[in-house]
């Protein structure tokens, strides 16, 4: 392993491999075309106007975000079809009204109470009703079919509402591991969604739009029956959690954190890097087989001339984080070669949170 | 419980109770005076020039930080005695040189290798040698007394080095609970530090400066034998972790996150707020007795006219976080009263990471 010689990297720095990210973007676009669904990537993963352009170049015109702040950011950057894929916050009425005046805005609700806010809008919007098909975070329980039908038809009567739809995020796919487990979540979710749809009364029924999406199912499954639009986000970068689920290969991971070694402890098979909870986030991966039973916040990748390549370095992972320090388990031979100030390139457990924590990043060409 | 009527809070917002924060600042200043030690607060907790001024008004002139970026920020704001309390990163030589030209800069090292970087400085610095007295993160093991003595005397010979000292962060106090456990960590650490000091050869021995500090011991202990300077940070805000350790009372917690309710689930005793991992961070508190065996990312506080008061609401805590969503366990009676868009005021498990994630905050007067 030779160490990255980029002398202009002084502290912890996010690296984005453009080749891999663009390949991930194009691959998902191709899949959507083949499956006959629209692709609405979730931009919370990168929150970057510049990376947003890579999606546009690949044919994306509709996006999802999870805060009004992100919607404002991308509306300012010229995006004209934006979905707020998080339940409506009534306190943001004024900002939402302004957004809806500037672009085609889709809001998410999950109760009749939220219609009080919709009634106060002076602009038109599309309205998604979030369905919980087993994940247990947000959405109306899929078994409440009468409630969902009534809400869809109530919503459709509001003069502010152009179109009504159903929104699903099957986040329970993050608990899966391997294609058959992902497939099981996928089929169960879509079957439940179909059942909900079948019970929606007219006039909402015949004009209902269905949006579903999470990175594991969108990455591994090929068809999306009953769905008009898929909405994955993390696939632009992927990360250790996605690799563990089986949603991607090592070569698909397009985001890492370059961080300098600031202390060496050969006697305990450890180095400490300047990269802590404020850089990697405290999200971790637990695995029965890997990481000696410890939480893993990131894995050390093998550095190549243009970035990183192949699988992670065996036995080299971040097992402890404080605010600015990261404790990295390393094999003795590697510690022997490592000097103070050397850079380690670490693939984070969860790339969305690393990107959100760091805001800033460096684009590298990557290896073809 | 009446809900906060501040209509200008639309999304997740950090609230800083000025009365409590200033009381925390003054109390620690008083303790340092009574104990006959200098106080060098660690500014990584707030990273705010404005809150920095509250410390200055209370008599602080020396500060610690944990990144060159923070050192630059506070140097620009007029601070002239800054310690980088993290092992030296050789890649930042140029920025360090510049800082050392503008203020009295203290660096931290923990190996002879780091002296190669010190030799390349064109400005003078103070140099702390970090000692590990049992925490196991960074620092030279306290039992390596010969190594430490040699390093101190080697360092002192460099023309760039004004003064040499020992630096301790007894972060193992974060595993303690209650005064006697905190006292045990405190006494053991200082005893080990004294032993290290006693074995340092002249000329370093007689001019050695000793800096120690972590919020639990500095908050609960009254004397700091053998120590010239204490270096706590988190005490300006405190948080659930500190309360759990016994380092503070509920009334000392000076930072919360106000966040809107965006979904209600009476059937599962839960609401969802717009406040996720990018706001609260994924740091949590585990407790055998509290939180039904779940991780707790934050607790819901009782809202008062000028902020929040008293103890947290019984049985109301954040037990799950995704990027922008927080799942809050709540008693049925409270959910009954809670409407979409109501604000919850949540004390985070770890206030430093919440502040680092949010950057921005709102100062409230607080209740006297």
Automatic annotation (TrEMBL), chains A, B:
GO terms for molecular function: D-serine ammonia-lyase activity. Pfam families: Ala_racemase_N, D-ser_dehydrat. Residues 254-365 form the D-serine dehydratase-like domain. GO terms for biological process: D-serine catabolic process. Keywords: Lyase. SMART domains: D-ser_dehydrat. PANTHER family: D-SERINE DEHYDRATASE, ZGC:162816-RELATED. Belongs to the DSD1 family. This is Alanine racemase. The lineage of its organism: Bacteria, Pseudomonadati, Pseudomonadota, Gammaproteobacteria, Alteromonadales.
